[in-house]
Design brief:
The chain is built from 17 helices and 22 strands. The protein is of the alpha+beta class and 515 residues long.
Length: 515
């Protein structure tokens, strides 16, 4: 199929030529040697950390995480304290001030994790970490952590909730601090550390927290340790992320469950009504058919378009790995498609299935929709487009649960609820001095291989909230393996990615002053 105007202006990734890569900075061998000598202690500390349940909605567990993390930072001399605002979980903050430094960086990661069903995990539990010799679906067997002095295979995986997303970012940052201090090296920037506790809940209190502590958190740039490396396994530096907002849509049927034999063909079935409604939201080519969905997309600049033209495309390999016969939108590669706004059905619930299945017409059906946004979209405006579409499909929109009178008067009823949080996409220009400095720093850790500079990741982080509240730039340095199962059961971290991430974080801390 031919590319639409939107797709033509949707490049993503640029390969940095090995020939132009800077010489490896002097600290990388020292950081690597320190890590190799301390792998066992690092993993024991990390296992203790990921074993703490960390759902943002469970205040007591989040407080346990924050207290534990503050102690990890205290042992490293980072003078931690908890930053809070009304209703927010604590952010854990620390500092490393360098005499004479003229640049200040904030290093960000989050310590909360996505909800998960422990019964859906295979052979392990989300908060009982285990090591496996390989990926689970490739026959990886559970093994104990070797005794000190015994080798640790870097291809092993650590299975636990947030092992990858995003306690790995926290651990890589803190271990990089250890490595520099043990090597007698000082950062080239003043460093501040900010570890959030509600990112996976949409960061609904982050803006207020940042405004309250703005004087403490001001910096020249925020470096974000979150997200996966490129699917090829090469490191990447990302200058943007998508925005995100989640919406619950519930439609209604009769006031009580009805026998499907006695009332089938007569009583409206809300599960069928919702399925039909969802089917109107995308066309047969996979594009969102809601009016105006793509109208306000901000085109990428020439440097960003050049980026995608230089990316080695590996869609065919991904399709083989993931068992995908045909992409949802055929033609443009994944790298282009994630620069478009999307609409995803996260889940659908109505009646019962499996052992709980019954021959009934249910009373309601609910779908959770995930709206991913790109530059130019506004999350509130995008939700309104969805609401207008549902109304256009003949649904009467409710402000709460329907009354009996509502049900009698309106043949189609829907209640649309926006979940907490929600924020816009963010993107930092790729040609800024700090943008180039971060890319060169990460490249210095792997001089024989390219590091990809990507205008945006497909995932979402509250970077627009940070930039709007503090007037700063944000740049992401993803660390974890692309096949980490983040947000799903059997989340895992490949150990070599943690080791590589430590080197990347140390390099950023030591990156050359801007010219």
């Amino acid at each position: 199929m031919s590319r639409s105007p939107i797709l033509r202006f949707a490049p993503l990734v640029m390969a940095l030529s090995v020939a132009l890569a800077p010489r490896a900075q002097a600290q990388t061998p020292q950081v690597r040697q320190w890590r190799q000598a301390n792998e066992h202690a690092l993993l024991r500390e990390y296992v203790d950390f990921v074993a703490i349940p960390n759902l943002a909605s469970r205040e007591a567990d989040i407080r346990r995480n924050a207290t534990h993390l503050a102690e990890m930072m205290r042992r490293r001399g980072l003078n931690p304290r908890l930053l809070e605002s009304e209703g927010s979980p604590p952010a854990v903050y620390g500092e490393w001030t360098v005499p004479g430094a003229t640049r200040t960086l904030v290093l960000y990661a989050h310590y909360d994790g996505q909800p998960t069903d422990s019964l859906a995990w295979h052979g392990s539990h989300p908060w009982r970490p285990v090591f496996r010799t390989a990926r689970l679906d490739r026959g990886g067997q559970i093994v104990p952590l070797p005794a000190p002095g015994q080798p640790i295979d870097p291809e092993w995986r650590l299975y636990a909730r947030s092992a990858a997303d995003d306690k790995a970012g926290v651990m890589a940052i803190l271990a990089a601090v250890d490595a520099l201090r043990a090597s007698g090296l000082a950062p080239t920037s003043n460093l501040k550390f900010f570890f959030e506790g509600e990112e996976e809940d949409g960061s609904p209190h982050l803006a207020a927290l940042l405004r309250r502590h703005a004087d403490v958190l001001r910096a020249d740039a925020w470096i974000i340790a979150d997200g996966p490396v490129h699917q090829s396994g090469h490191k990447q530096v990302s200058y943007g992320v998508r925005g995100d907002v989640n919406v619950d849509v519930t439609v209604y049927g009769p006031v009580r469950p009805l026998h499907s034999g006695h009332y089938g063909n007569w009583a409206p079935n809300p599960a069928m009504l919702l399925a039909q409604l969802l089917a109107t939201m995308k066309d047969s080519h996979g594009r969102v058919s809601i009016a105006g969905w793509y109208d306000d997309v901000e085109p990428l600049g020439e440097a960003e378009r050049e980026a995608i033209r230089n990316l080695p495309l590996n869609d065919a390999e991904l399709m083989q790995e993931l068992g995908v016969a045909l992409p949802e939108i055929s033609g443009p590669p994944l790298a282009e498609l994630i620069t478009l706004p999307s609409l995803n059905v996260n889940g659908f619930e109505s009646g019962g299935i499996g052992a709980g299945a019954r021959n009934v017409i249910p009373t309601e059906a609910t779908a959770v929709l995930d709206l991913r946004l790109v530059r130019g979209n506004d999350h509130q405006r995008q939700v309104q487009k969805l609401v207008d579409h549902i109304r256009m499909m003949g649904f009467h929109l409710l402000e709460g649960e329907p009354t009996l009178d509502d049900r009698r008067r309106h043949p189609r009823l829907a209640w649309v609820r926006v979940r907490g949080g929600g924020y816009n996409a963010e993107r930092t220009p790729m040609d800024l001095p700090v943008s180039r400095a971060v890319l060169q720093a990460v490249q210095s850790t792997t001089p024989a291989q390219p590091v990809y500079a990507v205008p945006t990741l497909g995932g979402s982080l509250p970077l627009s909230i940070i930039s709007e509240a503090l007037g700063t730039r944000t740049i992401s340095v993803p660390l974890v393996n692309h096949d980490n199962n983040q947000h799903a059961e059997d989340e895992n971290l490949r150990l070599q990615n943690l080791w590589d991430g430590i080197e990347s974080m140390a390099a950023v801390m030591m990156m050359a002053p801007e010219r």
